[in-house]
Amino acid sequence: MARYLAQIVVMGMQVVGRAFTKALRQEFAASRAAADARGRSGQESAAASSLSGISLQEAQQILNISKLSPEEIQKNYEHLFKVNEKSVGGSFYLQSKVVRAKERLDEELRIQSREQKEQQPPPPPPDR
C-alpha cells in the first residue's frame, strides 16, 4: 500500500513539475516579446526612472496628469509649486517631489519626441 502511495506522489510531482516548467517557459517568452516590443524607448524610459528616482506613473500621479501634454504638465507644475512654497506654509519636501515629477515627465517627453523623429521616414530626395 505504501509503495502505491509513493508512486502516486512521485507521479503527481512529475506532472506538477512539467506544468511549472511549461508555464515558466511561456512567461520567459512573453517577457522577451514585451521587451522587444518596448524596444529602445522602453529601455530609455526605465533608465530615466532609475536616474531620477521616480517612475513615470508616480510622476503622473504627483502632477495629476493623465496624458503627457506639455501644457497640462506646466500648468499643474506651476500650481503645485506655488501651493507648496515654504513662505506660504507649504512643504519643501512636497515642493521637491513636484520638481522631480516635472523633470521626469519632461524627460519622457524628450524620449517620445526623439522616438517619433526616428520613426519618420527621411524626406524624399529633390527632383532634378
UniProtKB/TrEMBL annotation:
GO terms for cellular component: PAM complex, Tim23 associated import motor. It is found in: Mitochondrion inner membrane. Residues 107-118 have a biased composition (Basic and acidic residues). It holds the Pfam family Pam16. Keywords: Membrane, Mitochondrion, Mitochondrion inner membrane, Protein transport, Translocation, Transport. InterPro entries: J_dom_sf (IPR036869), Tim16 (IPR005341). One of its GO terms (biological process) is protein import into mitochondrial matrix. Residues 31-52, 107-128 are annotated as: Disordered. It is a peripheral membrane protein. Signal peptide: none annotated. Belongs to the TIM16/PAM16 family. This is Mitochondrial import inner membrane translocase subunit TIM16-like isoform X3. It comes from Microcaecilia unicolor. The lineage of its organism: Eukaryota, Metazoa, Chordata, Craniata, Vertebrata. The gene is LOC115476269.
